[in-house]
Amino acid sequence: MRGPANVPQPIPYQGSKRQLAPQILRYFPDRMDRLVEPFAGSAAISIAVAARGRAKRFWINDAHQPLISLWQEIVESPERLADEYERLWHEQAGREREFFDEVRDRFNQTHGSADFLYLLARCVKAAIRYNSKGEFNNTPDNRRKGARPAEMRQRIETASALFQGRSRLTSFDYREVLSQCGKRDLIYMDPPYQGVCGNRDQRYLPTISHDEFCAELERLVAKNIMFAVSYDGRTGDKVYGEPIPESLGLRHLELHAGRSTQATLLGRDDVTYEGFYLSPALAEAVQPARKATQLALW
Q1: In which domain, by residue range, is 93 found?
Q2: What is the CATH number of the domain that holds 84?
Q3: β-bridge pairing 271-278 and 185-189
Q4: Which of 16, 137, 154, 198 has the greatest number of C-beta atoms within 10 Å?
C-alpha cells in the first residue's frame, strides 16, 4: 500500500484534497463496490482509494469538460499524453513566459488535453480560471517550469494503471450523477463553491444553489445512500460557507487542514478546519468497524 506522499497526482489542482485524504478515508468503509466523485477535479480521493485497493470501481465526474477530457487521456492514452507533455516542456526552454501565452491561446481555441496539463503544471496556484468570454486566463508562475517530463510520465502512467478498465468518466451535472447512484455506491462530494478557499468567482463552474444542493442530499438520505461531503469550514473564529442544515441528520466533523497561509503571513497561529459530513447510512456502516478496532485495542 502506498503512503500519502507516494500516491500519484497527475493533475496539479487548486483545492485538491490530497493532503486531507488520510483523514477523509478514515470515515470510508474498508471495501467499497464503487466510489463516485460528482465534483472530481483532480480526483485526489479516488486516487487515494484506488492506491489502497479499497474500491472495485470508480465514477469520476466533473462539469468541466476539458478536465474530463484530460482524465480520459490519462486513463486511456497515458503514453501519448506523456509524450505530448514532454514535447511542450522542452519547447518552452529559454522563452517560458511567451510559450505559456502561446499554449494558452491554443488551448482556448482547441481545448487540447496536453496543452491543458501544461497550463495547470505552470500556472499560478494550479488554478483553473476563466474570463467572462470563457477563455482560460490564469498566468504562469515564473518561478517554476512545471513537473519534469519523467516525473509527469510516472504520475500519468501510475494513475492510468489504477483506473484503466474500472472507471467511468463523465461531464454531467452533479444532479444527474446523484440520480444514478444506489446503495452499493459511496459518493464523495467536494462542491467547488464552498469551503475555505475564499473567492472563487472566476472558477469554471457556475454557482450552485445551496438550497438545491441540500435538497439533493435530503433525497440521498431518504434513499439510504452512503455519502460524505466536504463543505464549509473555519479559520480561527472566521466561518466560511453555509452549513448543511441539522435537519438532514448528517454527522458533522471537522478535519484539521493545517495552519492557514494568511495566518502565517500575519504571524498568527490560526488553524484551518474543513467541515466534513457523513450521511446516516455511511456513519452506520463505519461505526461498527471503529467499535471493533477500539475493543481490539483493549
Answers
A1: 76-155
A2: 1.10.1020.10
A3: unpaired
A4: 16
